[in-house]
Specification:
With about 210 residues, the protein is an alpha/beta fold. The chain is about 45% helix and about 15% strand. It has a domain of about 140 residues: Nucleotidyltransferase, domain 5 (2-Layer Sandwich), CATH 3.30.420.10.
Length: about 210
């Protein structure tokens, strides 16, 4: 994976700040990528509660559907009607969700120190970090790979100087990736993983 010297030092420093068992856990990187997605109650990080987290592993050129993580989380406040219309998670669906702390622990045990990828990953990681920082003492040290950024590089190389449409639907269309129903954390994580694999096959992946 392409990483700058600054990114390497940043990861090293964050790992140094972690206490056990998180130091050893988040240092483990077997070269597998993990595509992640979160469904939340708000697009504003400071207001958002996490409703679901999904993660699926990518080994080489294949998505490992059996090596996946998904959990529903019971939020402190019941999502409003408009929010339910977006992600389809009704109060009855999340009423039996796991406590947030348990979900975060399970998520950390799944991803460990592997590189994370996703579509507008910065938002998902920011929401996760909001809740993880009090536990870890720092933010996630994992390397991050933004799918839309790699797609931009691919499109710009084909047409230098042109604008690039980074909408989810347009990326999927131009990469010939089937669109699974949106705003489902697992579907979005799998779709982002498919986008990455196509870009990787065209020389715009991790290498």
């Amino acid at each position: 994976m392409r990483t700058t010297t600054w990114q390497k030092w940043q990861r090293f420093w964050r790992l140094r700040q972690l206490q056990e068992p998180y130091g050893s856990m988040l240092a483990e990187d077997d070269g597998v990528f993990v595509s992640i997605d979160c469904e939340t109650t708000s697009l504003k990080v400071k207001d958002a509660e996490i409703l679901s987290i999904a993660a699926v592993c990518i080994e080489g050129n294949r998505i490992c559907a059996r090596d996946a993580f998904y959990t529903l989380i019971k939020p402190q406040q019941t999502p409003g009607h408009e929010n339910i219309q977006v992600h389809g998670l009704r109060p009855i669906d999340i009423s039996e969700g796991v406590p947030l702390q348990d979900a975060l622990q399970q998520f950390l045990e799944f991803v460990r120190g592997r590189a994370l990828l996703g579509y507008y990953l910065k938002y998902d990681v920011a929401v996760l970090n909001k809740f993880l920082k009090p536990i870890l003492g720092t933010v996630l040290p994992n390397h991050q790979l933004e799918v839309s950024s790699r797609y931009y590089d691919w499109q710009y190389a084909k047409r230098p100087g042109s604008s690039v449409d980074l909408r989810w639907e347009m990326i999927a269309k131009n990469l010939n990736v089937p669109l699974l129903p949106r705003h489902d954390a697992m579907n979005d994580a799998i779709t982002a993983a498919m986008m990455y694999l196509v870009l990787n096959s065209r020389g715009y992946g991790a290498s």
